């Protein structure tokens, strides 16, 4: 018998399991894959702590970057945290002065760079493809190493990790009292779903409908390379947020079987290099309500290479493999955190707008909140989740 079962060992599940164990709770973490294959693995690793637009997101952004600056020491594990400039490229046909004003609403406003200055900062840029760029301070981590550091610290706190797929929830009347997996059953006072893009379909098994959606992300990962990309490069106008906004037009039925809606896809060309020399570049984001939808990796790779190489020509022919994963989002709040559908014993921790910045902070706040500490942020998110 556990105090908490956490479903999913990506960055969200790992940090939440750790923080719960920090409160002296008996915690079981269930992960379906022995080898991780999720949004954490394929994340750029960027920490956009500058992007807060109101008191809440600015507060959490500040807390988030401070947490990451000290996290490796706390967890006694390498997260590869570093400060790394973010270069937001402005398309040649766009006016830089118009684009920069869009960023006036953020906690930290960017520096507008000329084409020449942008290429001095990031020599791999193609000067003929841009009309300028925006420079912002940015944090960067290795997402899977950070997750692994959380998991090892969790185990040192006597947390239990089992690789098994959850297939159903255990009920006692209307309450959720644990889970059934492919091989066993586990009982707990509380169960929290941290399944990212799979959270929606998993909770449907408990007859709980949530506004937790997902895009199918496709990107290219390379082996270690012997040249250096000195910044994170992304477009100043990102189509992914526009695509997610369009999801508000979809109905609940669109997201449920038989999944009749056609796929909508966009591509935001960008790239980042990790400390071991590997490069992650992409990305295509597609809305296809079927979580098992198969998108063509060959077409995706060709499109990514074509658009990224327009900005960063040296990346056109580098070796690499196209991967895909689900990326959760929601259209209600910065995250879906709290008890679900007034059903005792079942919680959600998913749908973050800025996962690597917000999830660790909200995991800490949530764990302290359920242990009795007042937290207006968690209470606010709890009030939204079932609205």
From TrEMBL:
Q: Keyword Oxidoreductase, does the record have it? A: yes
Keyword Oxidoreductase present in the record's keywords: the answer is yes
Kindly state which keywords UniProt assigns to this record, in alphabetical order: Oxidoreductase
Q: FAD dependent oxidoreductase domain: from which residue to which, for each copy?
A: 3-369
Q: Which residues form a coiled coil?
A: none
A Gene Ontology molecular function term for this protein is:
oxidoreductase activity
UniProt GO cellular component terms? cytoplasm
What InterPro entries does the record tag this protein with?
FAD-dep_OxRdtase, FAD/NAD-bd_sf
Alphabetical list of Gene3D superfamilies matching this protein: D-Amino Acid Oxidase, subunit A, domain 2, FAD/NAD(P)-binding domain
Identification of the protein by name: FAD-binding oxidoreductase
């Amino acid at each position: 018998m556990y105090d908490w079962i956490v479903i999913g060992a990506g960055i969200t599940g790992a940090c939440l399991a750790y923080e719960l164990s920090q409160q002296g709770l008996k915690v079981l973490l269930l992960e379906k894959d022995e080898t991780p294959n999720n949004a954490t693995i394929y994340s750029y690793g960027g920490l956009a702590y500058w992007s807060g637009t109101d008191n809440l997101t600015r507060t959490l952004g500040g807390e988030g970057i401070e947490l990451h600056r000290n996290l490796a020491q706390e967890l006694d594990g390498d997260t590869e945290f570093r400060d790394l400039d973010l270069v937001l490229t402005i398309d040649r046909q766009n006016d830089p002065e118009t684009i920069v004003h869009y960023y006036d609403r953020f906690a930290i406003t960017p520096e507008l760079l000329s084409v020449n200055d942008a290429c001095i900062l990031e020599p791999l840029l193609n000067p003929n493809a841009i009309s300028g760029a925006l420079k912002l301070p940015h944090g960067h981590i290795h997402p899977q190493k950070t997750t692994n550091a959380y998991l090892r610290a969790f185990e040192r706190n006597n947390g239990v990790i089992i690789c098994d797929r959850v297939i159903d929830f255990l009920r006692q009347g209307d309450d959720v009292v644990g889970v059934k997996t492919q091989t066993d059953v586990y009982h707990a006072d509380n169960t929290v779903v941290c399944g990212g893009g799979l959270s929606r379909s998993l909770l449907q098994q408990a007859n709980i409908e949530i506004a937790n959606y997902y895009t199918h992300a496709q990107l290219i990962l390379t082996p270690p390379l012997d040249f250096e990309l000195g910044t994170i490069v992304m477009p100043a106008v990102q189509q992914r947020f526009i695509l997610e906004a369009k999801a508000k037009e979809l109905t609940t039925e669109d997201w449920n079987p038989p999944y009749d809606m056609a796929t909508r896809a966009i591509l935001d060309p960008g790239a980042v290099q990790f400390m071991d020399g590997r490069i992650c570049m992409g990305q295509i984001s597609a809305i296809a309500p079927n979580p098992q939808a198969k998108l063509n990796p060959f077409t995706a790779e060709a499109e990514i290479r074509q658009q990224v190489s327009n900005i960063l020509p040296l990346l056109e022919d580098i070796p690499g493999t196209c991967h895909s994963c689900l990326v959760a989002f929601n259209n209600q709040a910065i995250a879906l955190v709290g008890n679900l559908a007034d059903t005792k014993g079942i919680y959600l921790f998913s749908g973050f707008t800025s996962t690597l910045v917000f999830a660790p902070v909200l995991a800490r706040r949530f764990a302290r909140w359920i242990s009795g500490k007042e937290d207006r942020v968690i209470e606010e998110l709890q009030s939204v989740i079932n609205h």
